[in-house]
Fold this protein.
Amino acid sequence: MFDSGVGGLTVLHECLVSLPQEDFLYLGDTACFPYGSRDPARLRERIAEIAELLLDRGAKLLVIACNTATSVGEDVAREVAAARGVEVVPVVAPQAEIAAAITDNGRVGVLSTPNTVESGAYRRALEKQGRALEVTEVEAPALAPFIQNGSLFDEETMAMARAYCEPLKRAEVDTLILGCTHYPLVSPMLQRILGRDVRLVAGGHAVAAAVQRTLERDGIARPPSGGEGTYDFLCTGDAEAFRAVGTRFLQMPLGEVARVEIDGGL
Ligand code: DGL
């Protein structure tokens, strides 16, 4: 699985809860973080390279643990993986399904990166749910970098988060899609600003369920009694910085983080 940084660890966490017997290889493309405001065309080249790299290392399934990468390059990842007979599990669609199912007033908010909003991926995914929904999308360009840098919560951070939540409050959303895999890491702050009546929808759990279904359907799941699998981490930027922030967020030792070079894109 891959993300631009540590956000995808929120998806990995859910997969480790559901499928501890599987082996996981996680790549954080930290040299190119943030994806949220990168040129989408170049991002697509990068995603193809990352998919190739993970498949070269023996991935039997590819999880796009990044909403921005899913929004701008799900098709590219699928194309690369399909050429090797490998399935792809993306984010975005599973969250749209949950949000449409649980909203009472039909007002759904989406907080995500600029690229994700501009791609229209959530709007399309929500439209497919067959229910009339009022969708309010908000770009939060500074939120993922704040999380990725492991910054402290200060007054400036709170002001930034409040400003992002303001249009959501005004629209009276009762359900908010955390449209970036980094955001569940600050859900306590968002929940406080929005209040208890707003349900926050993170994608990790649904993605883990989709991973399990796909592995079982294709007959490539490990038996649950098979003991604990392995987990390995790669990143394209500073390995020590990734290890430090990642260990804190995942709340387990990441071990060695290997640095890898990727040619494509950015
Ligand atoms: N975790 C990534 C996402 O889900 C985003 C952060 C970024 O690279 O801008 O969109």
